[in-house]
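Q: what sequence does this backbone want?
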């Protein structure tokens, strides 16, 4: 049997490969086991996390409901008629008796206090009356912050005013409940391997139901954090305890104990099988690899020495011998092919270098005639001994001649026109497909340069015409507009006009002023695009920038007062920080942004805030006006962009203000962007300034 098996192995590589592949099949199987191992662990961890999340939310909900009931109780007590005894210091001790009874009813670590309007204790369940309540100042501070609770050490203080129906604007006193947060531990679950922590970061207060390992401290509250030893779950409280979080820490070893025992058994079982598989695969692989190693060594010698005369001699009766013969044939053909490729690559590289030189020379030309003359000259250098010519006529086909038609773009009519034809007189290359493709590439280069020359000429002509037109129109339009403004201002001051005539003249003045502003905006835009706006970039401290903002606010203040709007400014950046800007351009930008904010705000106000945003300084101009949709914000920085709703609201605008402001900001490395939560929710214009390093 062994001799027959060995005979099969020696004569058939296919059978050996089958056995080898069968052996190799165990490797993916092991990887599958490893994958299942990790998947099983992850499944247990996910189940544990889901259970702990549910338990933690139950504890959290119970605590929140309990605290809510405490809050309702003190409000109920404050509404009782007997609380009016606060003004007479609880002479008959009714309030004290009520508080003591309520403390017994509530249970837990709770103390109740009744305070008069000056913060003096009238009755309590913890401490003597007729003394100033130790947290009276914190109560007043909480009232200013419009909240009914605050923290003091390990205590949560809940309070509510005691009011009368006759004098609600001034309470008689306050009913206060002091809750010891250590009492939260009675709501926790008692489970093996589970630790519960109530953590209040702002108060630096930790309440542990059971000792928590130092390495398992939550740090910053993330919902789930898995460490090497623990599963840490955090959940922030809602409502009164919103400043705190509940943390569950689960010992990972306890959660995974059953799975680990099962996996140890499985891996022990497979260890013996894997050892047997490894021994058998080594034995089979050794017999297969011996003839293959000869081929590998021959290949290595060829790669190392580049000697393609190497041949392989393999003596066997299986597929390896056929592979060796084919390998020898392949090496011989490769040797011959490489020699041909080297020669062809050398020629192609030379042709490519010549083509680059040809293109570099023709792209320097600025006129069509010079481009054609340079192309013919360079083609003569590129193909010495060949004759080239150019004709304006369209030549389709001439025997023994390569015809290269040149078509150029007519950008005004968006069409292509025939420019001429380059002729190469060479009968041999006229039938060579590769040569034809090369010459067509050359003709495409020439056509691209001709297109570029025409396009540049058209752009220069259009730019010159645009500048001339705007310069002429600025003079032609400004002169009559100034005349109209002077006449209307004279008529407004003339006392002989009736009120309706005065209104019409004011309308004419406003329209003329709007046209003059639009002309000034257009001229500003043209100057920016022409690079004629002087820019002086230098470092300014944030204190200096603050003065520029205040100057802009003063200029816009009159417009805001006319509409009954408020203007506020807050600087949140240290004065010594520096930014790069141009103070004159910055002032103009701020005036544009503030004008827009006031223009499109009917009620409320405009808030200006300067703060750091990442590695830049930002100035936010926020209004309470009409707001914008996302689509409108995307299009608003395009020139001459306006929206119908602004026109309906009576606001006039050229649609250039924001476009000009962004272009001015970018002149000193700044930028502008708009943000809005939607129509009717106001707009925030953010101006970015680069910090001076």
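A:
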């Amino acid at each position: 049997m062994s001799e027959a098996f060995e005979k099969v192995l020696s004569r058939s590589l296919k059978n050996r490969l089958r056995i080898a592949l069968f052996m190799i099949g165990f490797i993916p199987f092991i990887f599958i086991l490893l994958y299942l191992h990790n998947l099983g662990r992850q499944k247990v961890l996910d189940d544990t996390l889901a259970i702990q999340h549910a338990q933690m939310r139950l504890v959290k909900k119970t605590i929140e409901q309990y605290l809510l009931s405490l809050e309702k109780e003190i409000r109920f007590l404050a509404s009782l008629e007997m609380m009016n005894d606060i003004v007479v210091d609880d002479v008959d001790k009714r309030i004290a008796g009520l508080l003591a009874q309520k403390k017994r009813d509530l249970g837990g670590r709770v103390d109740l206090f009744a305070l008069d309007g000056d913060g003096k204790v009238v009755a309590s369940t913890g401490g003597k009356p007729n003394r100033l309540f130790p947290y009276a100042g914190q109560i007043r501070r909480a009232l200013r912050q419009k909240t009914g609770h605050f923290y003091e050490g390990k205590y949560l203080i809940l309070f509510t005013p005691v009011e009368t129906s006759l004098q609600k604007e001034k309470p008689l006193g306050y009913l206060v409940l002091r809750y010891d947060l250590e009492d939260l531990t009675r709501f926790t679950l008692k489970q093996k391997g589970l630790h519960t922590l109530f953590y209040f970061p702002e108060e630096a207060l930790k309440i542990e139901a059971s000792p928590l390992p130092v390495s398992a401290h939550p740090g910053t509250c993330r919902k789930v954090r898995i460490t090497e030893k623990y599963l840490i779950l955090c959940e922030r409280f809602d409502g009164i305890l919103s400043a705190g979080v509940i943390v569950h820490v689960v010992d990972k070893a306890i959660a995974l104990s059953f799975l680990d025992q099962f996996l140890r058994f499985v891996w022990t079982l497979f260890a013996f099988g894997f050892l047997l598989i490894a021994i058998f695969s080594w034995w089979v692989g050794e017999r297969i690899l011996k003839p293959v190693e000869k081929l590998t060594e021959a290949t290595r010698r060829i790669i190392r020495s580049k000697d393609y005369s190497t041949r392989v001699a393999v003596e066997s009766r299986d597929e390896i011998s056929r592979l060796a013969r084919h390998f020898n044939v392949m090496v011989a053909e490769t040797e011959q092919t490489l020699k041909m490729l080297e020669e062809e690559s050398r020629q192609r590289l030379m042709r490519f270098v010549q083509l680059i030189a040809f293109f570099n020379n023709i792209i320097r030309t600025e006129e069509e005639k010079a481009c054609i003359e340079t192309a013919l000259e360079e083609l003569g250098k590129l193909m010495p001994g060949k004759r080239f010519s150019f004709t304006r006529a369209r030549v389709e086909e001439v025997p023994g001649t390569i015809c290269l038609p040149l078509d150029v773009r007519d950008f005004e009519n968006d069409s292509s026109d025939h420019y001429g034809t380059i002729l190469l007189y060479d009968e041999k290359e006229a039938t060579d497909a590769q040569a034809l493709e090369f010459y067509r590439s050359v003709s495409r280069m020439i056509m691209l340069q001709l297109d570029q020359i025409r396009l540049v000429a058209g752009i220069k002509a259009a730019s010159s015409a645009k500048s001339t037109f705007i310069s002429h129109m600025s003079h032609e339009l400004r002169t009559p507009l100034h005349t109209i403004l002077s006449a209307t201002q004279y008529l407004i001051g003339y006392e002989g006009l009736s009120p309706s005539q005065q209104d019409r003249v004011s309308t004419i003045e406003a329209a003329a002023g709007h046209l003059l502003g639009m002309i000034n905006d257009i001229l500003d835009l043209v100057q920016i695009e022409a690079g004629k706006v002087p820019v002086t970039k230098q470092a300014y401290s944030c204190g200096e920038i603050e003065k520029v903002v205040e100057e802009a606010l003063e200029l816009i203040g009159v417009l805001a007062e006319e509409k009954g709007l408020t203007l506020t400014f807050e600087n949140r950046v240290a004065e010594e920080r520096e930014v790069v800007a141009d103070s004159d351009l910055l002032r103009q930008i701020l005036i544009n942004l503030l004008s827009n904010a006031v223009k499109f705000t009917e009620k409320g106000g405009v808030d200006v805030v300067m703060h750091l945003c990442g590695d830049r300084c930002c100035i936010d101009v926020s209004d309470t006006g009409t707001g914008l949709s996302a689509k409108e914000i995307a299009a608003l920085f395009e020139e001459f962009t306006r929206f119908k709703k602004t026109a309906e609201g009576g606001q006039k605008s050229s649609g250039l203000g924001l476009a000009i402001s962004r272009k001015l900001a970018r002149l000193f490395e700044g930028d502008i962007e708009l943000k809005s939560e939607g129509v009717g929710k106001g707009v925030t214009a953010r101006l970015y300034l680069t910090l001076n390093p």
